[in-house]
Amino acid sequence: MKIGVLTSSRADYGIYFPLLEQIKKDNFFKLEIIAFGTHLSKNHGYTLVDIERDGYQCIHTISSLISNDDEQSIASSYGLTVLKFAEFWENHKYDLVFCLGDRFEMSAAVQAGIPFGVKFAHIHGGETTLGAIDNTYRHQITLASYFHFTATDIFTTKVNNLIDSFENVFTIGSLSLTDIKEFIPIERKEFYNKFSIPEDDFVLVTFHPETMALKSNIHYANEMKEALALISEKIFVIVTMPNADTQGSVYREVIEKLKKENSERILLIENFGKLNYFSAMHYSKILLGNTSSGILEAASFSKYVVNVGDRQKGRAQSNNVLNCEFEKNAIFDTVNEAISKSEFIGENIYFKENAAGNIIETIKMFL
Fold this sequence. Notes:
The chain is an alpha/beta fold. The chain folds into two domains: about 1-175 and about 350-365, Rossmann fold; about 180-340, Glycogen Phosphorylase B (Rossmann fold, 3-Layer(aba) Sandwich), CATH 3.40.50.2000. Helices cover about 40% and strands about 15% of the residues. The protein is built from 13 helices and 13 strands. The chain has helices spanning about 10-25, 50-55, 70-90, 105-115, 135-145, 155-165, 190-195, 215-230, 250-260, 275-285, 290-295, 330-340, 355-365, and strands at about 1-5, 30-35, 60, 95-100, 120-125, 145-150, 170, 200-205, 235-240, 265-270, 285-290, 305-310, 320-325. The strands form two sheets. A seven-stranded parallel β-sheet has the order 3-2-1-4-5-6-7, with helices on both faces. A six-stranded parallel β-sheet has the order 10-9-8-11-12-13, sandwiched between helices. α3 (about 70-90) runs parallel beside α4 and α8 (about 215-230) packs parallel to α9.
């Protein structure tokens, strides 16, 4: 069976990884990677190198992102991605193509495949993020897909309602947590030395723009900056940089300015990669920001998360998440509350055993 996998960013590639490893070892499948989006952007770490390092026999690359991230540039990148993929789908045929999540470029690649009858399998559909325009892209991908692999029963019900059908919708948990029980972090001293982290506690931070509140992002970015400056006086701060969202550069510029002003207390990371990122989660005191990894994965590392603003609003949460508004004092106070807590000992609602294996078994059964 010929399988294509659409990957447009470091984030989705890290989630896919357990599935890709199992497909790669299974002679039933012929696997081809289709890399595009920020994987080919030097401003976002050129993470195509990480994919190539993992030893796939076939990697297609499609460049379609415009460097700017204002509304017109994002819309133009969407259109260019559709055009590039129209040619790609014309010349490349698959039995099944995996797509994941809610990125605008992922939506464009999928929409281009509709006239060609491409059979898509969507992972992480049915979720709700009211503070991000990705919510719309995610549902567009769902409507264009044949298989649906959701993270919880709540999201399965949402997909059932969206497609007006109960067929080909499967609850498999969060794919990125497939091997979490066997995960072994990089040895502590090696990890700290690798990234020049002081031998101290740290907060792991990731902020993205609220793409449903474009007029507020400059204000939010500055509130973030002032909050992180206060937090860095108390605990070391590691910031992973934003993806290519609308107005993502607003946050990048503010974060880079913050680093210049607080060079000894803040570390910026463009691209950790999954092993390093999971190790960072393991060693962190808490997580802070508005990224999905805090919602989906942090509970499996026994970490509390300070989730800021509305970007993740509507997404189901485990009991490790503390929500606060996008305001410096609220962020600072909630971080102090999270730091004061001991390790989180509750369940992660996104975890199910053998998510990747269950996807493979389902495909073999139904195709």
